[in-house]
Write a structure and sequence with these properties.
The structure is a homodimer. By secondary structure, chain A is an alpha/beta fold. Chain A folds into 3 domains: 44 residues, 434 Repressor (Amino-terminal Domain); 128 residues, Rossmann fold, CATH 3.40.50; 147 residues, Response regulator (Rossmann fold). Chain A contains 13 helices and 12 strands. A 6-stranded parallel sheet of chain A has the order 2-1-3-4-5-11, with helices on both faces. In chain A, helix 7 runs parallel beside helix 8. The first copy, chain A, is elongated. Chain A starts with 8 loop residues before the first helix and ends in a 27-residue tail after the last strand. The interface between A and B is large, with 63 and 63 residues. Strand 2 of chain A pairs antiparallel with strand 2 of chain B. Chain A binds a DNA duplex through helix 2 and helix 4.
DNA sequence: TCGCGCTACTAAACCGGTTTAAGCAACGGA
DNA sequence: TCCGTTGCTTAAACCGGTTTAGTAGCGCGA
């Protein structure tokens, strides 16, 4: 008379000779169950190999016990960016301990909003991560309207009701620029990400600021798109200029690596004639030629932390923005002093730039 | 007296003046509902903005309406491999049309089995994808035991009850080797993936076979791990040999790109002294120096197709293995004729080949 | 007139948990 | 002796759908 299928709480109750409700109490460690009875119930549950049905619990508790991640990037860019897999792995680390799952959506950019709507309408998730923040990001309002808890990765420009993971790209960029300035560079270019992405803009502004702090002009910037093709193209533009930069700060490693190849094809030696820095410290960064000086970030840790806050938020606990450790500059061989010895010692506000060649 | 929260099927029933059950029939297009009544119900549902509760449906139907993907790779390798994001994007393309979701698990390799067990025990998913197949993969038996439908990406060595996505890496490798042979190479090495991974082994065997077909010895093989570090290391080993290869076929782009850097640092010109081919056609492949000749695969399409079969399998439809189009060799600048005219000593029962130069 | 079959619909069970209200026994205090 | 607690336990409602069994009304043929 053994029915097939998994045992339910009802089977456990029968086996232990008690009611369904009491089994539920015992299994959830509620008070009001006699020790001897509790023991009997737990033993029965173990003997039957009972495991709670996630579906039943979800319906009863009106919770999904899952969080969502909507990714709206073209797949080829996704594949080249080391951020996502590491971030997701970090998220999982937190989630798996707590019986939560991660529901992923990869959508075309046009369907991004619909993606969040669907996750919310279906009740598939209890909260979401907000990545790739944009300037004046419309998703913030959408999520508030949907009442879907969220954690933003990086702090959005406008204040929101959602906690943010405080990621600050500025010290990393500042360190890269400072390093180049110290080496003697005066003409430091930037290949930026799209300006409507927060991280694209923040890195560009940080580059500008760092140059200003060093008393240098920030006139060698080309906006790009974080892709290899874009990085290559932007590098060509910069190297075609009459007054070439002696160093380029890239907004990510992918563009920087593509930039290395362009320089090489143009016969521009790196780091002899051109210094290059990246951002991310991708797996490949240390294994290109020359190995790339770059800014190391820790997306795995970000994922862990973001998931942690999100779960607390969902549980209704009070939450605050979460700080993250500053990114570190990783020195490798793609940076060196500029070709000609700097005409002047640095820090004279020297107008004598023409003497350099 | 309007209660907060989403409207339920009960609200719709009340609004339309019918019973819950009838609403369910009407909304699911069942016969046995008068046209006029059906219209009234649909109108009411629309007016209330009703959407079915995924949770309730899941409990009632004993289905999760979701499929799972367990990834057991170290995060840094994950980030560098273009396969996963593209594959997942393809999966999503199929799933999103059908109201299905993707549940992702990223686990340490040691917890892989537990990952599947948990997905199955929780009833979070109705089926899973089996990626990164290994020789004698223990997961096959596990999934059969768990009764969790699965689709394997590539055909496992032992026959299973699960359908497979027929991915054949051999023509791609064969094309790469043939291309090199045609250029005049006689000493063609291979940097392989781990031999316990099916795709690692298959590519190696394909390389061996292609060399045999060309009457060349397959004695320049170094096993590696698909990582940049591993690729660099393996390249050093090969280039340190007394009799250097004039060409290296890498089992993936990441190792190939790292190999390019090593060659450069050793002063070995690519493609002048050494030809290099990769596998994947990663975003960066076309933007390194020299641009990489490689084998283009289509993980996005694989994801689409795999999800398609998996859903059919879950629905109990009869399914068969799914063919995929063969991979294409993409010619770029990392391959060229070997440096010196091929020396004719080596064991020549094939005298005519030396005339090629 | 009855019985039969068909259509349109309702009531209730069910999925498998959680939670609330109520019941029952033993016990201490007045 | 009766009452009010306290401790343990059960019955039943509930989450929001799907599905089954059953019923009312109607036309039809015998």
């Amino acid at each position: 008379m053994t029915r097939p299928g998994r045992p339910t709480i009802r089977d456990v109750a029968r086996a232990a000779g008690v009611s369904k409700g009491l089994v539920s109490f015992a299994l959830n460690g509620r008070p009001g169950v006699a020790d001897e009875t509790r023991e009997r119930i737990l033993t029965a549950a173990r003997a039957l190999g009972w495991e709670p049905s996630h579906r039943a619990r979800a319906l009863s508790a009106s919770r999904a016990f899952a969080v969502g991640l909507v990714i709206a990037r073209p797949p080829e860019l996704l594949g080249a960016d080391p951020f996502f897999p590491a971030f997701i792995a970090g998220v999982e680390r937190t989630l798996s301990d707590r019986g939560q799952a991660l529901v992923l959506q990869v959508v075309p950019e046009s369907a991004e909003e619909a993606g969040y709507r669907k996750l919310a309408a279906d009740g598939r998730v209890d909260g979401v991560f907000l990545l790739d923040l944009r300037v004046d990001d419309p998703r913030l309002a959408l999520l508030e309207q949907l009442g879907l808890p969220a954690v933003t990765i990086a702090r959005p420009m406008a204040p929101t009701r959602w906690p943010a993971l405080l990621i600050d790209d500025r010290p990393g960029i500042a360190a890269a620029v400072a390093h180049l300035v110290e080496l003697g560079h005066r003409r430091i270019g930037h290949v930026a990400g799209p300006d409507h992405f927060l991280h694209g803009r923040v890195r560009r502004l940080a580059w500008e600021r760092a140059l200003a702090d060093a008393g240098l002009p920030a006139d060698l910037c080309v906006a790009s798109d974080f892709s290899a093709a874009g990085g290559a193209q932007a590098t060509r533009v910069l190297l075609d200029r009459a007054e070439r930069p002696t160093a380029i700060v890239y907004a990510n490693d992918l563009m920087a690596i593509a930039g290395l190849a362009v320089a090489r094809e143009l016969g521009v030696d790196v780091p002899g004639q051109l210094s290059v820095t990246g951002f991310d410290d991708a797996e490949l960064a240390g294994y290109v030629s020359p190995p790339l000086t770059t800014v190391r970030t820790d997306p795995f840790e970000w994922g862990r932390a973001a998931a942690h806050v999100l779960l607390e938020l969902i549980d209704g606990e009070p939450v605050a923005d979460v700080p993250t450790p500053p990114a570190q500059l990783v020195l490798r061989a793609s940076t060196a002093p500029p070709p000609a010895p700097p005409a002047k010692r640095r820090r004279s506000p020297a107008p004598s730039r023409s003497e350099q060649t």
